[in-house]
Amino acid sequence: SKSKGRNRYEFFSYVIEEQAIEKRRIIEEIRIALKEDQFILYYQPIFDLDGINVTKAEALIRWLHPQQGLLGPNEFIPIAEQNGLIEQIGDWVRDRAIKDAAHWFRLTGKVTQVSVNCSPLQFDRAGLWVDNWILACNKIGLPRDTIIIEITENTLMDPDSPIQQQLHRLSDCGIDIAIDDFGVGYSSLAYLQRLDIDILKIDRSFIQHMETNENSIALIRAIITMARHLKVKVVAEGVETQGQHQLLQQLSCDYLQGFLFAKPMPSAQFTDLYVTPLAL
Ligand code: C2E
Ligand code: CA
Ligand code: CA
Ligand code: CA
């Protein structure tokens, strides 16, 4: 049994070794992807309560991998977060999102807000990150209220972190801040007192259960009531059924996002479907 144990140990160390090799391969491929422009920004429309009108879209990254096809963010963002590559990906996402938003602004003369996901690891301590957002908007002539930065509650866990300062600067400059996956993080509500938050995005898990679970609907109602008093808007994430849509209408939620209305799509398709050009 001793040798059996050793075999098992050897098997596990073999698996761990394999995983390490796989990870190094992905890291190398992400570097190439950045150089060769293999990332794509998809957009998922965010609807008014009627489920028809669209004034915002969430930018969601994809990777058109030369061998593996279209990959979702869960397959590479966590790895990129472990080794600093997330900063370069974040820069790419910022520039792409600003270009697309500027294109839509020119087409319509109206702001289509673009909501961009930001991992806490993207905020550097020197605050260069905020400067770069502002510079990039100014350079292309994009009104800053076009941009929404989505962060999760976990980003706000430490009230003394330099991230708080940066978020203050962001909102002072007119960029909106949204709390993503609201209700499932480890944070307290204290940050709502400290920071100028514009949007709460209620996590999909609450929406998913609202038709069957009394507690879910009670929590959603409480979040919407609290948000109204704080003058913060609410987005319901992951709306998939007519029943959920009806309940959210009854609760007077502000905005809706989910497969019931539209999946994330390439920017050209978003333009065709949701961006109405000014009549010439
Ligand atoms: P998230 O920010 O919570 O984004 C919403 C995710 O839910 C997206 O998955 C979207 O496709 C999916 N979704 C939207 N509506 C529905 C629905 O009705 N039902 C279901 N089942 N799912 C729905 P996606 O695109 O795979 O993104 C996963 C996560 O990857 C995002 O979660 C976000 O945390 C992260 N991510 C995406 N793009 C970026 C990025 O550019 N930068 C960073 N740092 N993270 C990103
Ligand atoms: Ca998000
Ligand atoms: Ca604000
Ligand atoms: Ca979310």
UniProtKB/TrEMBL annotation:
Residues 23-278 form the EAL domain. This is Diguanylate cyclase/phosphodiesterase. It comes from Shewanella ulleungensis.
